Amino acid sequence: MHASVSNKSSFCYALLYCCLVWLLPALSYADTFGVEVKNAEIATQGNSYVLSADMDYRLSARAKEALQNGVPLYWDIHIKTLQYRGYLWDKTLVNTSVRYRIQYHALLNMYRVRNEGSRELYNFSTLSAALDSMSMLRNFRVLDKALYESGERYAVGIKVTLDRDALPLPLRPIAYTNPQWYLSSDWTLWPLTK
After folding, report:
1. Distances (CA, A) of 134 to 6, 33, 95, 100
2. At CA 122, angle to CA 120 and CA 125, rounded to 5?
3. Calpha distance 107→101 (Å, rounded)
């Protein structure tokens, strides 16, 4: 009877040890990489409300290695404007995104950042300068003043995601299973007031 109990407890300890060993790499990287929306401000400009925001990109070692090997990384900055409604789900008034591609060119020893919407292309000599160029969103139109109704509540949300589906096919399974590729931010919401 005692041997059965000690075998069960040994098995439980071994199972707990295996889980900790499996999770330890993920826990050791916690908060060292990812994207965070740092500041946001909503202002009026002409007949519109505009959003200005700052993001902080912190790439993991795996993402930096892929970038150094010529793999382009695609980032989407998702922006939405919501109207709160008490009786139904919230109404989405604006749902748009800005897409950036960052890629390292070894021959030129340069990082290139391209705004996929406007097709603007910028070259940088360092990774930090390239990431800084993607980190500022300025005067992005989020709502026409004519759509703002007094007495209603509105919010503007922003989320930054790494498009793992845009990675080369052999890298995708790794990107979905390795925590170092979980580089997206959560939604951050700010109230939109008149």
Report:
1. 57, 16, 20, 7
2. 170
3. 18
Name the phi and psi angles at 161, rounded to 5.
-130, 145
- 64 burial type by CB count under 10 A (0-12 exposed, 13-18 middle, 19+ buried): middle
pLDDT in tens, the chain (194 residues): 454 555 555 554 454 454 444 444 444 444 588 999 988 899 999 999 999 999 999 999 999 999 999 999 999 999 999 999 877 788 899 999 999 999 999 999 999 999 999 999 999 999 999 999 999 999 999 999 888 888 889 999 999 999 999 999 999 999 999 999 999 999 999 998 87
**What gap in Å lies between CA 192 and CA 46, rounded to an integer?**
16
The torsion angles phi and psi of 89, rounded to 5 degrees, stand at -65, 160
How many Cα neighbours within 13 Å face the side chain of 50? 10
The amino acid at residue 87 is Y
Residues 6+ apart with CB under 8 A from 30: none
